Structure formats: C-alpha cells, structure tokens
Recover the amino acids of this structure.
C-alpha cells in the first residue's frame, strides 16, 4: 500500500513569507503528526491531529499551525518565516488508537528560508 | 524531554550482530519502548516496540530487562544498509507524540 506522501519535497522561501506543507497519510490512518528536524535541536514534535482535532501540541510559537481534513490529509502552515525555520519537516501517520501506535513517516519537506 | 539514554555512537562489523543498549530507568507501567531508525536524509523508520516481553520481527529483536529499566535492540546480521541513527523512545498508551533524543549513530563497516 502507498506510504505517507509529503509535498512539496523541497521549498525555498524568503523571510516574512508564509508556507503551507501537505501530508497524505497511509489509507485508513486517522492520526497525523508533524515534526521539525534541525541539526541543532534534532527531531521535535510540533502537533498531532486525530479525526480533524488537534490532540497534542509541542512547544512552538503560534506561527506554526496545522489542520486535518475529513479524509485525514493534513496541512501545516508557518507564517512570518524566520531563518531559524529552515528545517526538514516530517509527517507521520498512524491508526492513532490503542497501544499499537507505531508511526510511519514520510520523506519530509526540506524548507530553506533565505 | 526524552526519557531515554543511549550511547552517542557505535561501530559494527558487517555480518555480525549489533547490540544497541538503551536506559529508561524512569519508565512507568503503561509505557512502551519503541525503536526507530533514520537513514541519512530520510524519514524515521519504525523498527519494533514492546511492553515487557521480548519481541522479534523481520528486522530486529528487542530484549527488555525484567525491571524494564533498560532494553537492547539486536540487529542479528548487520549490513551496510543498517548504517543509521537509532532512536529508543518511551511512549505511553495515551501519549500521542514521539519524543526523540539524540539517538545512537551506528556505523556498519565492511
């Protein structure tokens, strides 16, 4: 079956702009999580959505937001981009219930802010 | 806020078993131990998870000590393609996020 699909794979934006990243989860998965990966901070949790509701949020400023649609696809938005937002943004999908919570990650979107 | 401690790096010879240790001394009763790995520039890949019993799948084996304060991931026959950063993560049943630490950089050498 198809894996987690993230688009676009690469993106270059200018400081002050905003960006929207997209994630299509594995068919049937209802949970989508987002992570930011930078060389300095490693992999950090941004937020998690389940059935269109945000269940958990990491310690990021309000410029980072997300949403999930009825088909479980998710988008994250970063407004007023800063140089420090340059990172690999990863999306993970899972069933989202119970103890068997293994998550499957996409290949990520590499965002460069100049 | 990772709850695990792993060695920074380790080397392994191709064809030999790789034993990756992880300490999680503050693990609570409803928390599972998960292992993921990340090959350079790719998304993390799920390997295995367990609660208290040892687990085995096609990729690896997970050995959890009786007191659950530590575990070992075993790659039975390491190949060059197993070179990656390996993350040990403790996660509760109702915890909807993965808290990644720095992981162990494993280098498999020919």
């Amino acid at each position: 079956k198809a894996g987690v699909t993230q688009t676009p794979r690469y993106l270059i934006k200018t400081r002050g702009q905003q960006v929207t990243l997209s994630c299509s989860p594995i068919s049937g998965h209802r949970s989508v999580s987002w992570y930011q990966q930078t060389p300095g901070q490693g992999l950090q949790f941004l937020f998690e959505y389940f059935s269109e509701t945000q269940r958990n949020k990491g310690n990021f400023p309000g410029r980072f937001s997300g949403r999930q649609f009825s088909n479980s696809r998710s988008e994250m938005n970063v407004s007023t981009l800063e140089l420090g937002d340059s990172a690999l943004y990863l999306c993970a999908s899972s069933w989202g219930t119970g103890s068997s919570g293994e998550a499957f990650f996409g290949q990520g979107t590499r965002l460069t802010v100049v | 806020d990772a709850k695990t401690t792993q060695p920074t790096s380790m080397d392994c010879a191709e064809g030999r078993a790789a034993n990756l240790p992880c300490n999680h001394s503050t693990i609570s009763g409803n928390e599972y131990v998960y292992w993921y790995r990340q090959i350079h520039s790719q998304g993390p890949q799920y390997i295995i998870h367990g609660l208290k019993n040892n687990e085995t799948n096609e990729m690896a084996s997970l050995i959890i000590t009786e007191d659950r304060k530590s575990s070992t991931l075993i790659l039975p026959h390491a190949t060059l393609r197993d070179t990656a950063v390996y993350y040990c993560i403790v996660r509760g049943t109702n915890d909807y996020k993965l808290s990644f630490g720095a992981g162990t950089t494993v280098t498999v050498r020919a």
